[in-house]
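Recap slide: Receptor-like serine/threonine-protein kinase, sequence and predicted structure.
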Amino acid sequence: MASYYSPQPKFYYYYSSLIILCLSTLLFRINSQPAPRNISLGSSLTAGAASKDYWLSPSGEFAFGFQQVAGSSANGFLLAIWYNKIAQKTIVWSANRNELVSSGSTVKLTKDGSLMLADPSGRQIWGPNGVGAGVSYGALFDTGNFVLANRNAAVLWGSFDQPTDTILPTQIVKRGTELISKYSSTNYSTGRFKFTLQNDGNLVAYTTFYPQTGSNFPYWAGNIAGNSVNFNKSGNVFLSSANGTILLYLFTNKEPTQDLHQRLTIDHDGVIRLYAYPRWPAEWTTLSFMPEDNICGLMRDNTGSGACGFNSYCQIEDAQFPKCKCPQGYKFLDNSDESRGCLKTFPPQDCSSAGDDQFDIMEIPSTNWPDFFYDQLESQTEGMCRQACLSDCLCDVAIFFGGFCWKKRMPLTNGRMEEGASVKALIKVGRSNSSSLAYPRKKDESSLKLTGGLLIGSSVFLNLLLLSTTLLFFSWWRRNNKRGQLHPTSSVNLLSFSYSQLESATAVNLVSFSYGELESATGGFKEVLGRGASATVYKGFLAEEKINVAVKKMDKMGGEGEIDDREFTTEVKVIAGTNHRNLVKLVGLCTEGQNHRLLVYEYMSNGSLASLLFKGDTRPSWCKRMEIVYAVAKGLVYLHEECSTQIIHCDIKPHNILLDESMIARISDFGLTNLMKVNQTRTTTAIRGTKGYVAPELFRSVAITTKVDTYSFGVVLLELVCCRRNFEMNGVDPEWFRQFAGCSVQIIELSFFY
């Protein structure tokens, strides 16, 4: 199986900085299995937004009760089992995934031994099947298994016997048992993918005829008859025979599991993943996954729509997660559910008319819908293939590869993009849809330009009419859209200065604020969150959205305006083009007049890392410090390795690392950023930084690389370890320096483990 557990090479710079901390992990926890806490007959739980009422396993690792579903209505609750000691409260089993219950619903272990979920009116929503008589109590084990047992402690029913989409260590899956994926990452109802040990012993994964229950052909199969799937304590998952012989390893684990939470889940994209949750970094990490092949290309047995819906195509992103996309000229049938497929935004070609001048062909490189063609042409050039589809009123898309041209009609199935493949899809779209799309034909671009020039130059009256209409529209827009969103077609003239760098910022949906709106939101710029060399950050509140924001106001826009405008423009360009959980998100901007340059960020309620480390007497726990280190490292890797334009921050320091409401670290302040193109490896542009965090090469006229951020990261790491600044502005106290230099001795404190 593919393994994601070992750090990738690009992390080595950052993980090497962690060695001093990792060497301190000298103790191992040895967990025994305490006796479960019996849940007596007559016990009950009630769903409620403020309810903390649930049943715990002996160590508190798992909880059984009601959990409100994020993104659902205020009354949407699952009866579930979840990991209780981790921040995510990850659900591993649920009873009512297809029928959420409202506040006031109850689950009760009745006097006669029945476990019943009922809504506030008393209507039964769920109850376990095949329990039988004689239930004396219920119990939740530290394995995550909730059981009903008789007076002799014999288990009459267990949640392990009826899994949803997840199995846990020590769990055994018997013949006829199936795991069914969630519908989406936030929708817990039954999804499109199943992983089942069939009654004939074959272990298979397949899609369903959603929303019907029928199945398509498997996209993965073990092709060997087994008796059960076992997930043992060592983290190995295997198919075994009735006598215990291991027939097929699904996942193998060579890492120690004492300090790992583990689960195997069939995710909403159809990939079966083995997850681990180390005590640091505190988040779920994919250890292995199956199938190893590109999931986008596996579901193509001439049935179903594929990994994505009809008329869409699938593209693999990081960690084997597929992304569903629509071709040019199409839109999602449901923006909240991209797996449902796409539909045209233009009327179909009229076969009663011989003309094709209302349509164009748009190219999608490395993309294919491999099944169901109605015509095949050989010895074709790409131009011939384009024209063949364009002139055929039945053709919706042509696939061109190796001199062959396959013409296809809707619906398109099993679409996928494979990076580097020489195949290409030629999509027919309405010409009115093609002007703003990628990959147009150059001949038609020239024709449009020529036609436009002739029309404009043919009449003075037309020019005057066009000018008048433009002025009237702009006046109307100013009155009715004082506040709106900047779209790719928005004019850069909305800004009071012309910078081509802002084009990438306007390509994402940034809110355009007026100066008055931000002045009102900040209460006249009263509450200062922080000050920099050329800007001050204020706390604000957007009444309409009911959210707090941080407003960065550029201070120097006069004689040094050129420098500050450049910094402002750079920050907009960089922040607007990034998207990562460990970077502070840019919400909007203000560019009103010549003297107002403001940026609006999401508000980080827990302040900066500097405040956490250097103010007050309370130190963050070692676990929390490790989480912060890991988060900053991931943010830097994104800037250095994963952005389309490589970014050097050049001012990594605790003041520029902010903490959100969940104490997740996020990198901020890109005003000093240097950008690199993909084919560059270093830059020599003048870079500024902060004393104490600046790499030595910044003081010499030498090429600058991403290692300057790694150096600064190392300084921040040392400050995190010691909870002290790396230098004092008012001179160095020998005693302070001795404590700082020797503080690593404190790492061996037992507090490291708490």
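The longest helix spans residues 460-480.
The two ends are 34 Å apart (CA to CA).
(End of recap.)
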